[in-house]
Design goal:
Elements (H helix, E strand, L loop, with lengths): L1 E2 L2 H16 L22 E3 L6 E8 L17 E2 L2 E2 L12 E3 L4 E4 L2 E17 L4 E11 L1 E3 L6 E2 L1 E8 L9 E9 L7 H4 L10 E2 L29 E8 L19 E8 L19 E2 L5 E3 L9 E2 L3 E3 L5 E4 L16 E11 L9 E8 L5 E7 L20 E8 H7 L9 E9 L32 H6 L2 E12 L14 E2 L9 H6 L52 H9 L5 E5 L16 E5 L3 E2 L5 E2 L8 H12 L8 H44 L12 E3 L2 E3 L1
Parallel strand pairs: 6-9
Antiparallel strand pairs: 1-14, 2-3, 3-27, 4-10, 5-6, 7-8, 8-9, 8-27, 10-26, 11-28, 12-23, 12-27, 13-15, 13-26, 15-16, 16-22, 17-18, 19-25, 20-22, 21-22, 23-24, 24-25, 29-30, 31-32, 33-34
């Protein structure tokens, strides 16, 4: 039975908490996330859906070359240093190791590289209780804004050049959003959290959704009776391959490789009578010639809208997250297994998308009554096919590709358009389950090492040759726009916010309470104090001259290293203002960390810049944090008197009697001791001075068995 009042209760609860901070909360909550390099003409945009104006709340133009994104280097982004341990219940796995050195900025782009490079480490096997050597043959990059910049709703616009060869399959480039309560590639944080977008109490689903609307008292700062999850919105996932350019079966209108997948991943999913992979959903019963039902209509979402050179995706309808195997990094019982749906479309790409910039846009109106609209800058198909294509052929026109409305979700499974605070993710993956040959000969050894000739049959022809020189995904800019009071503008959806820990959907206290789920596995976790370095390095990077610290002076202040100076020269000529200087490390504030080894010369950042080499703008989050607010108000607001029972009353009375009796006895003893001391002193004085009474007996007072007599 579903409880449709959970969301209202959670909202009311959040409103009570919000009232405590109303006096200090700005009317429009926004963080200081705008890149000063963003031109004025892009500080606002108009919705392609209704023409309403949105203003910029976050941007990164990536104009500064040489930026680094390792943990603690950048206030907006973190590049991962870990294996992508994506082991599904069906046994698939990723083939790459994410290394932060694969992410940098150059020539005005964020550059994510994927190369042939082995990474070796030892990993502990909990089943066999032993350390085992591990190795990945590909090195790649993922950068994410988790726990730094998050937003709920608005317009996201990314200008990119896709990596690799459009007709060689095997790469998996992606631009996507994930709810902040889950961290991408950290499977313990997403287990039974991803990709739930469900805020109703259904007892049959309660064990499948870790944070359920059936929970009367959610802990770790969660709102009671509010269903939560790490919802996923894929702005695009690139699928390449097929140099023949043949149209794919069951695509309508016809679409060929390469294409961009535009998808909402959502749970709960359709449990039965699902569409068959490789076929469009069958909307009506199939009848025999004599009128009997041969095949029943399949259950799938109604009202999905595709336009132009876009088709519903018939090849992937979702993932069944079944009971886990012992060797998997998470545990999920049979009762916790569930179906997740991929409600997606395929948009035609062309070779031009891999050679020059193209923008992709998502317009996200969150929550009940909301919708998702995907747009792309369109090109005519370079192969001259007869498919239905839109756009001016130059890749400069915005073309609507796909629309998913909240009613499509609500009417079928009761799920909703995501309303979770979400963060941005850019990455290139390599997975045997994405763009690799669907089948390989029985004689082919299933291995994925380009240096081993026996593995060649497991790759698409030309893949290893393409990878010898490495591939790069280039991102020219990312911009996020929002509209104030969006819930009341009549266009649908709820209000749009900035922040990873909003009052209505808190996450930070939950993350702190489950920190181990968001951390790397040993041995990499031995280097970590927590999931993330919340304090960003401000200077401290090794330098030879000011140019290494975002300065313009090339005068060396330290002995020159043997490295080339191309990157430094580019940095010197491209920066418009001083960001830092190179000084002896003793002068650099805040560098003396216990156990650290400091360079002889280090960067010192000027105000407004951060990072080891002062190359990042010092962005900050101005949004109200539920965790910070709770810490400041809980001491007074959460204090309540304990329930008093008759036994507690009797015990309190008995304890009071004992305390009073002990106090009386103490007073009597103290008085006796003082009086005895006085008598002793008097007797001593008389004995020494010869003072006697008329009868010759000692005068004064004498002690009689604890009392007094004269």
């Amino acid at each position: 039975m579903r409880n449709r009042h959970g969301s209202a209760a959670a909202t009311a609860y959040a409103a009570v908490v919000a009232a405590a901070a109303a006096a200090s909360m700005p009317s429009a909550v926004r963080g200081g996330w705008i890149d000063p390099d963003t031109p004025e003409e892009f500080r606002t945009t108009k919705s392609l859906l209704d023409g309403s104006e949105y203003r910029l709340v976050m941007s990164d133009e990536f104009e500064t070359p040489g930026r680094t994104f390792a943990d603690g280097h950048d206030p907006t982004w973190t590049a991962l240093d870990k294996s992508d341990d994506d082991y599904s219940a069906s046994g698939g796995g990723s083939l790459h190791f994410y290394n932060s050195s694969s992410v940098t900025t150059k020539n005005g782009y964020l550059q994510i590289s994927t190369t042939l490079e082995e990474t070796k480490w030892n990993q502990y096997d909990d089943i066999k209780e032993e350390w085992k050597p591990q190795m990945k043959h590909f090195k790649s990059g993922m950068v994410q804004s988790w726990e730094k910049f998050c937003f709920t709703g608005g317009i996201v616009e990314v200008d990119i050049v896709l990596p690799g060869d459009p007709y060689i399959g095997g790469l998996w480039p992606a631009i996507w959003l994930l709810g902040n309560i889950g961290r991408a590639t950290y499977e313990a944080s997403t287990n039974n959290i991803w990709p739930w977008s469900y805020d109703e109490c259904d007892r049959s689903l309660q064990r499948k959704q870790s944070i359920s609307a059936c929970d009367e008292a959610n802990h770790y700062g969660m709102n009671p009776r509010q269903g939560r999850g790490a919802t996923e919105i894929d702005i695009l996932e690139g699928m390449m391959g097929d140099p023949e350019g043949q149209y794919l079966p069951s695509t309508d209108p016809p679409v060929a490789l390469p294409y961009a997948d535009m998808t909402l991943q959502v749970a709960p999913g359709v449990p039965e009578n699902r569409p068959m992979s490789g076929f469009q959903p069958m909307r009506n019963d199939s009848l025999t010639p004599d009128g009997h039902t041969e095949l029943m209509a399949q259950t799938w979402y109604e009202g999905l809208e595709v336009e132009g050179n876009t088709t519903l995706n018939p090849f992937f309808y979702g993932t069944y997250l079944g009971e886990t195997k012992p060797e998997e990094p998470v545990t999920r019982t049979k009762e916790e297994a569930f179906q997740a749906d991929a409600v997606g479309a395929m948009h035609q790409l062309t070779p031009a998308h891999f050679k020059k910039n193209h923008k992709f846009r998502l317009e996200w109106r969150p929550g009940r009554g909301g919708r998702l609209d995907w747009y792309a800058q369109s090109h005519a198909n370079s192969q001259g096919k007869d498919g239905y294509l839109m756009g001016d052929g130059k890749g400069e026109d915005w073309v609507k590709a796909y629309t998913l409305k909240d009613e499509s979700l609500a009417n079928l499974m009761g799920s909703k358009i995501p309303q979770e605070p979400s963060y941005l993710i850019f990455n290139i993956a390599i997975s045997s389950t994405w763009g690799f040959p669907n089948s390989i000969p029985d004689w082919c050894e299933k291995c994925y090492d380009c240096s081993n000739s026996t593995c060649a049959c497991a790759f698409h022809p030309g893949f290893c040759n393409m990878m010898k020189g490495g591939v790069k995904m280039l991102i020219d800019s990312v911009r996020v726009y929002q509209k104030d009071n969006a819930a009341g503008d009549g266009t649908g959806g709820q209000n749009q916010t900035v922040g990873c820990d909003p009052l209505e959907f808190p996450t930070r206290e939950y993350i702190k309470g489950h920190g181990y789920r968001y951390m790397r596995h040993p041995p990499f976790s031995y280097e970590d104090d927590g999931p993330l370095k919340y304090e960003i390095d401000v200077g401290g990077g090794e330098c030879e001259s000011d140019v290494d610290c975002g300065g313009t002076s090339t005068r060396p202040v330290a002995p020159k290293a043997s490295t080339g100076g191309g990157a430094k020269e580019e940095r010197r000529t491209s920066l418009s203002e001083e960001r830092g200087k190179c000084v002896p490390s003793d002068f650099v504030t805040g560098l003396f960390r216990r156990g650290s080894v400091l360079p002889t010369y280090a960067c010192e950042c000027y105000h407004g810049y951060t990072g080891p080499n002062c190359l990042a703008h010092a962005h900050f989050d101005e949004s109200v944090s539920a965790y910070a607010l709770r810490r400041s108000t809980d001491l007074g607001a959460s204090f309540t008197l304990p329930r008093v029972t008759p036994f507690m009353v009797a015990s309190a009375i008995a304890l009071a009697v004992l305390l009073i009796g002990a106090l009386v006895m103490h007073i009597i003893r103290d008085r006796n001791e003082r009086m005895g001391a006085m008598m002793s002193a008097t007797v001593g004085r008389r004995g020494s001075g010869g003072n006697r009474g008329s009868n010759g007996e000692a005068g004064g007072v004498m002690m009689v068995s604890g009392g007094f007599a004269t």
